[in-house]
Amino acid sequence: MLLFRVQTDNIDLLRAQFAAYSKQIPLLYFILCTNTLATAWTFGPLAPRWLCIYFPAALCLFCVIRWLWWWGTRGAALSDAKIIMQTRLTTHLAVALTLVFTIWGLFLYPYGDPYARGQVVFYMALTLIGCVFCLMHLRPAALGVTVTANIPFILFFFFEGHSSLKAISVNLALVSVAMIIILLTYSRDFARLVASQGKTRRLSDENFRIANLDSLTGLANRRWFFAELHRQQASAAASGRSFAVGIIDLDGFKPVNDTYGHATGDRVLTEAAQRIQGACGAGVILSRLGGDEFGFLVESNPAPEDLRALGSAINDVISLPFSIGGSHAPLGCSIGVAFYPQSAATADVLFERADYALYYAKRHQRGQMVIFSTEHEEQIRSHSVIERALLSADLDTELSMVFQPIINLTTGQTVAMEGLARWQSPALGAIPPDQFIAIAERAGLVRSVTKALLKKALAAAITWPDSVRISFNLSAHDLSDAESVVQIIALVNRSGINPKRIDFEITETAMTHDFQQAYAAVRTLKAMGAGVSLDDFGTGFSSLSHVHRLPLDKIKVDRSFITDLVRNPISLKIVKSLTALCTDMGLDCIVEGVETEAQLAILRDLGCTLAQGYYFARPMPAEAVMDYLDDAERKRA
Asked: What is the CATH number that goes with domain 402-420+444-636?
């Protein structure tokens, strides 16, 4: 009897059956009503009123009520339990109504003349076939209707005695068998189709999941993040709500990756992702954008204080040590956040605003969260103006170099001049180097800037005494590929200056950007004969193992430690430690930012031998360098 029972063990199949037969049920009731009313009208003059008017009218009224119910449920999302209940009810009602209509037809048959009786046969056969086809997607109901209608109908006409009626009953029995076979075959094929569609859908869902999943961390990937960002923006625009997009960048990860290898780096990234996800909690959508960068979305009108609390929680979990074999790696993270619609009206611009906030955090508030503000918007506008001016600038004409001496504190001799960039824009006036160099890096123009400045620095240095070196700053982008380094070497060779008189200064950022490439670039510059100095030491996240592995000649102590050297014991201890470190590693130590006699006295007590700063001289144009050197030599003599 399983053929007549609603199967509830495959809810996907049951849902597909419900979706299919629910569209046909209104047609079933239409067939029942029209055929019943036509038959009742024929028997109006022949049968009792209760049999040809009242009873069929009651049946048709019930059918209309059910038709209206089905019409009202079109497109409604029903639960699994509701679908099971409606399917069982439909099956039971189909069998019950079939039995009632069959009994009514058989009761009506004796009152008719031969034509009217023929209509009853026609009514029973066509109505049955029409109803069965409407219920083909619901096998128990279709089989129940077939059996319930045909058995009484076949037996009744077979025993009527007339040979034509016997033939009709036999023919109907054979047709019924064929209909049952068709029903069973169709039901089986429909189930296979639904199973195949389900398998295809699951494969599609799995492919979609894989395509939008970061295989390393298990988080959503960059593709999914931007799709969700656009969806959030469209939803927020329609509902009038706000949301926030944030970008997290791990500080200090690249040294870990370079020092301990990519396998260890992958483990650290996986653990970092788990920590961040644990800190985010509900309502925050997290993904990995690539490398050591993560993105998150915060829905439902977040307040700035909520974002700051989230940033603090993320920083707290990331700052906990990461276990790496027998040691621990300290990391931090910087976070940039932008709000919709306050920061931007489109998804792409909103992400750019969050990226700028992250850029600002890494340059000015490393290890903290920065929320994009109107001040940043003004900076972007200003940077955009500077970038356009830089793009159209005649770099050879507008860029210039000024030089600041580096002094040997023991002998008082000027041992080198550091070249410092200057830009005088015809449209914007003088632009500070910390602005236009950073903008040139972001705009991909820094190599052209470096090339123009290096030519000017080398042209100036070739006129100086051989005892005076030239110190020139290189950007991380200048060391990012072998071609850039080759161009630098070519400029040096064309200048005619001895490479041994040149010191190239690189920053900690250049090392952490890509240590392997930085290492190769430094080795190449050293092979040419040039010296290499590490600038701004102590302000970033460089690893001492990197300093040890790089073939450096000098380390420059950042001016930030010298500013309050006289008043702050901590600054004194830091400078003392750095100078001792340089001595232990056999490196020269240059202290930047010396401005007072008191600072100079402390540095001499600490054993520092090289320094530069306003106390000795301010940066000067190239044409003033020889006068300065001559004057300094006279004073020293």
From this structure: 3.20.20.450
pLDDT in tens, 450-483: 999 999 999 999 999 999 999 999 988 888 878 8
* 443-446 contact pairs (CB < 8 A, 24+): 443/387, 443/390, 443/391, 444/477, 445/390, 445/391, 446/475, 446/477, 446/478
Q: Is 438 helix (H, G, I), strand (E, B) or coil?
A: helix
pLDDT for residue 261: 78
Catalytic pick among 228, 293, 592, 595: 592
The answer to whether 623 is a known catalytic residue is: no
Per-residue burial over 62-99, b if 16 or more Cβ lie within 10 Å, else e, is bbeebbeebeeeeeeeeeeeebbebbeebbeebbebbe
Amino acid identity at 353: R
State the chain's mean pLDDT as an integer: 86
**What is the C-alpha separation between 70 and 93, in angstroms, rounded?**
13
The arithmetic mean of pLDDT across residues 403-430, rounded, is: 93
Two structure tokens written together for 459: 């042209």
Smallest CA-to-CA distance from 55 within 66, 40, 38, 42 is with 40
CA-closest candidate to residue 471, choices 417, 521, 405, 535? 417
Query: In the numeric block, which tokens belong to residue 73?
Result: 């449920």
Q: For domain 222-372, give the fold.
A: Alpha-Beta Plaits (3.30.70)
Q: Where are the alpha helices (DSSP H) in 474-568?
A: 482-495, 508-513, 515-528, 544-549
- The tens digit of pLDDT for each residue in 88-116 reads 888 888 888 888 888 888 888 888 888 88
514-545: pLDDT as tens digits:
677 888 888 999 999 999 998 877 655 445 65
Model's pTM, two decimal places?
A: 0.57
Q: What is the CA radius of gyration of the chain?
A: 43
Boundaries of every domain in the chain: 2-203, 222-372, 402-420+444-636
Give 536 or 301, the one with higher predicted confidence: 301
Question: For the ranges 47-61, 205-219, 398-412, 577-591, which has the lowest average pLDDT?
Answer: 205-219
Residues 131 and 297: their CA atoms lie apart, in Å, by 54
**DSSP three-state, residue 290:** strand
| Phi and psi torsions of 409, nearest 5° | -70, -20
Find all residues with CB under 8 Å of 615, minimum gap 6, and list them. Answer: 594, 595, 596, 597, 599, 600
What single DSSP character describes residue 464? S
Sequence-distant (≥ 6) Cβ neighbours of residue 597 within 8 angstroms: 615
pLDDT of amino acid 613: 94
402-420+444-636 shares the fold of 222-372: no
The vertex-165 CA angle with 162 and 169, nearest 5°, equals 140
